[in-house]
Amino acid sequence: MQRDKFFKEIENLNHPNEKLIKTHCSYCGMQCGMNLRVNTQTNKIIGVEPRYDWPVTVGKMCPKGVTAYQQTNHKDRLLKPLIRDDASLKGTAEGFREASWEEAYDLIAKKFKELQNEYGKDSLSVFSGVSMTNEKCYLTGKFARVALGTRYIDYNGRFCMSSAAGGFLRSFGVDRGSTLPWTDIHETDCLFIAGSNTAECHPTSMFRIWNVQERGGYIIVVDPRETPIARRADLHLDLKPGTDLALANGIVNQLIEMGYIDEEFINKHTNGFEETKELVKEFTPDYTSMLTGVAPEKIIRAAEIYGKAPNAVVMFARGVEQQHKGVDNVSAYTNMALVTGKIGRPKAGVATFTGQGNGQGGREHGQKSDLLPGYRKITNPKHVEEVCSVWGITPEEMPQPGVSAYEMIELMEQKTIRGLYLLCSNPAVSAPNQNFVRKAFKTLDFMVCSDFYLSESAEFADVVLPAVTWSEDEGTVTNIEGRIIKINKAQEPVGESKPDWQIQVELAERLGKGKYFSHLKTARDVADEFRLATKGGYADYYGATWDKIDKQDGVFWPCKNENDEGTPHMFLDKKFYHPDGKAKICALPYRPPAEEPCEKYPLRLTTGRVVYHYLSGNQTRRIPFLHDMCPEPFVEIHPETASKYNMEHEEKVRLFTRRGEAIYKVKITEAIRKDTVFVPYHFGHEESINLLTIAALDPISRMPEFKACAAQLEKVELKKVQ
Amino acid sequence: MKKRLYLELENCIGCRSCLAACTQCGGHEERNRNYVYDVNPLVNRQTMPLMCLHCENPACARSCPAQAIQIHETGAVLSALVEKCIGCQNCTIACPYGIPKFDQEQNLMYKCDLCIDRTKDGIPPMCASVCPSNTLQWLTDEEIENKKKQFNLDNGKWVTSMPYLEGETNVKVNLPGILQGITKLF
Ligand code: SF4
Ligand code: SF4
Ligand code: SF4
User: Fold this and answer.
1) How many of the other CB atoms lie within 10 Å of CB of A278?
2) Which of A133, A272, B80, B155 is the most buried (most CB within 10 A)?
3) Ligand 2 midpoint to CA B49 (Å)
């Protein structure tokens, strides 16, 4: 399916005494195909071989993918459950002792029951993540609601994809991250890419993206930094961090003014145009330039290129989404496609670059505080009934909606939440305002963490459970395109580690809820129940069987039954998912970042990734090649700014905000705005930039504003650094 | 059909996946054999790989007093033979691009062998397999000829090998600037 000009028939190299297991990368939403090399004598994973026959990435991998296999048999793997009896050591890696699963389960069940007896069901919470299979994400939602009976479950997508989800739901009535398959990307005529450092964060998109220019098409990049993709773009709109909404409004205004709109499409298939037209009028090139710092000519030129392009794709990522108006930014950029009608056909549409491996699937099936499988709402009685019939509980037993990830942490600090089961996430690095977050974790009466390494967050736990890596279990993941793909098992679990779904089944049994879970004996059992639970929801996976995924090179949701081949392109019939079938063009008044620069904090701090690391770095910092390439964080500063502060390249300096401070090495580059500094967020403890970031949340997605806050720099005495 | 390594330097995004992948090649003992440079690190993010070009008349092999550097029938200039290399490091000095690396402990030169255990059977080398930006590609001569036509510039800036490089090479290189000659779609 969708084999294009980049696809070549190539046979793999087979070494003697080795077999190849087809699978995908453990890290980002690209989910590059790869083969794991397994020694047939030791049955251990020993390397990687490209998967040339995967149509999206045709063998390509970034350095994270190439070295991903080194996670499995890594010396830091947790081999047995760990218990820490001395709570005063919380927040350190000290005081853990190895224990049996029996002892760990007994302790967890006892503590969970005690807390719930004393403080009520909702005194427990589940904080999860989406770097795991759909099956695990699904079961985690069920575990929280059915085994624990708590309303408090949420997940790390609140720090990743939730603004994209909120924006798409508002604009289209459906949240599928890409309206078209990635095999369309190189065939479009213009890519408008905002807030995505694609070359570093989704590198294997790049051969398609460059091909647009080779064909004579255009690339427009919106970023405060001249990233590798911005360097070669036809147009680089170097905006101030946190001003996307103004820029998007300004471009939509120009599209209208210059007559690039598609009136027929607007009339037939959208609502909200007139109101939006009125609102964006104010955003003239000069006014927009004043707000964003982008030259007026560039704004006009961007609208002209995008407007003229026969086909174009609007793309964005965390740069626009991790703001306290992230949802508005998403809808505002989506407006560009809706007013010009460049959507609902091949080679044109809107896409977000999904951050985590299963950032798409993981947000659809009930790990979010208000969602149930199949993208159902927990506040919709009909939806609740449908899911209850699969789970075997009554609607009365279904907990109420909870709160978002960061708000759960606030409730921990207030002692409303007293127990935490954390899995597949490392919020002691990734959440904003770390000084507060770490204090909140210390406040907990009891915390369980499931991970395959002792993460910074595990350091706050009373019990740490050894989970498996992606290569020791099987299941499905939904990639950046909305394509459901299959992760395969290449090796037996290391030590006594177990997959999280199994841990949840066994824990549920200890909690007296076995009858809802004990039938789930294999990953495939979970998969079958999961597909059934999504049936009839709009993220319907029912027809996406593992066989079909294998045969078709993945299945795009929705896929409703056996005969349904899935939906690579969304909205081909120009039907959107709002009740009247129309999309919504949104009139969105501009709001500046929550914290604007001032005399005391004159710089704009923005954060992001480097190509060598993934998320909190708990995995990639342990991989020798990746560690060698980027062993520590740094602060990127423009040379003029550095000279104002009298700072030199590689000098250690103090960066601070109203919330915290850290010491970083200066990295001087002209490829950043003079008023902006950048620090990558993959590092823990005192190196974490999230000690400084602000927890200003988007009103809809509850996404914190990682991408913009006010900061100041200071030179440090040498002795202070050591 | 014979294929070659082809480099389109304009595309490089500096991810160093080529280096990571190099360590994955069976005969490479988990050491990478090429280089990726930051062209102008304090100014912008331009990067480019520096790969062995597998010269047709390689200075490294010519300079070797022990005939430790063999040329494979595919044209690949191989890494030094363990039993022959005397560790004189002539080759590292002779190569105009500084490609051969030296292992002090083993007193042995090692360099890119174009993943000979792959390329001898027509399987692309690891670097060109994984390169996310298509800076490194594994192409037939016909495909390279097409590239040449596609990027033909009036000012003669399109370059494979001569005259900028030292002699003819098996690897073909396309220097930055390819986009200048492209006619825009609209
Ligand atoms: S991290 Fe992302 S781009 Fe890199 S290999 Fe893995 S899936 Fe592909
Ligand atoms: S893999 Fe390709 S893009 Fe990455 S550094 Fe090497 S040549 Fe450049
Ligand atoms: S580039 Fe250097 S190492 Fe490679 S063949 Fe030519 S002279 Fe030898």
Assistant:
1) 10
2) A133
3) 6
Tokens of B148: 């040449």
Number of domains into which chain A is organized: 4
pLDDT tens-place string over residues A371-388: 999 999 999 999 999 999
Question: Taking CB atoms and an 8 Å cut-off, how many pairs form between chains A and B?
Answer: 127
A64 lines ligand 1 (CB under 6 A): yes
Q: How far is A24 from chain B (nearest CA, A)?
A: 14
- CA dist B143 and B141 (Å) reads 5
Instruction: Indicate the pTM of the whole model.
Output: 0.96
Residues of A within 8 A of B29 (CB-CB) are: none
Distance from CA of B62 to the nearest CA of A (A): 32
B161: pLDDT strictly greater than 70? no
Residues A102 and A122 in one domain: yes
Regions of chain A with pLDDT less than 70: 1-2, 718-722
A319 and B CB contact within 8 Å: no
Q: Looking at the structure, tell me whether residues A268 and A409 fall in a common domain.
A: no
Contact by Cβ (8 Å): A255, A306:
yes
Contacts of A228 in chain B (CB under 8 A): 13-14, 45, 47
Looking at this protein, which amino acid is placed at residue B2? K
CATH code where residue A26 lies? 2.20.25.90
Contact call for residues A547 and A554 (beta carbons, < 8 A): no
Do B1-50+114-185 and B54-110 fold alike per CATH?
A: yes
- Which residues in chain A have their CB less than 8 angstroms from residue B19's CB? 63, 625
Q: Which of B17, B41, B46 sits opposite A66 (nearest CB)?
A: B17
A-chain CB neighbours of B178 within 8 Å are 214
Amino acid identity at A414: Q
Distance from CA of A216 to the nearest CA of B (A): 4
Last residue of a domain, one of A313, A333, A352: A352
Pick the CATH number of B54-110 from 3.90.1150.10, 3.40.50.1100, 2.102.10.10, 3.30.70.20: 3.30.70.20
Residues contacting A404, CB < 8 A, separation 6+:
A154, A158, A162, A369, A697, A702
Element (H, E) at A623: none
Q: Out of A115-124, A630-639, B62-71, B154-163, which region has the weakest mean confidence (pLDDT)?
A: B154-163
User: What integer pLDDT is reported at residue A227 of this predicted model?
Assistant: 98
* Extents of the domains making up chain B: 1-50+114-185, 54-110
> Residue A513: what residue type?
K
Q: Which long-range contacts (CB under 8 A, 24 or more apart) does B72-77 make?
A: B72/B113, B72/B116, B72/B120, B74/B2, B74/B114, B74/B116, B74/B119, B74/B120, B75/B170, B76/B113, B76/B114, B76/B116, B76/B119, B76/B170, B77/B52, B77/B111, B77/B113
- Classify domain B1-50+114-185 at the CATH class level: alpha beta
pLDDT at B30 (0 to 100): 72
Q: Is there a single domain that holds both residue A607 and residue A688?
A: yes
| Whether residue A248 sits in one domain with residue A150 | no
Residue A692 lies in a domain: yes
CA–CA separation, A196 vs A200, rounded Å? 9
Domain-terminating residue out of A70, A102, A132: A70
Tell me the ligand closest to A355's alpha carbon.
1
CB proximity A636 to B under 8 Å: no
**Cβ–Cβ gap A66/B44 under 8 Å:** no
3-state secondary structure of A16: coil
